[in-house]
User: What shape does this take?
Amino acid sequence: MKLAGILVAATAVLAITASASFAQMADAKKGREIYVLKGCWGCHGYDGQGGVTGPKIAPEPMALESLIAFLRNADKTRMPPYDAKGLPDAEVGHIHAYLTSLPKPADWKTIPLLKQ
Assistant: This one.
């Protein structure tokens, strides 16, 4: 019983360490390529701005660990799930880096035409 608890804790630490490693080694350029290749843009737009069928996911995406969990367990009626075989965690890390690298849109108050 005690050993099982230690194994669960060790697994959790390894999972957190692994996702932290993905985040540090992630490449935004590779992430954009994977994002386009896997078709994410079709629902979420090329810059993650959202579209008719998919919500806005950039420039501040959910935490990497949450994104991986969501992709693995996505609701089939809204978004197909992506297993680790079809979209490895490392690739999700690159996509996350890409989404995070996108600039925030300008504040509408700074756009003269919108202030009229």
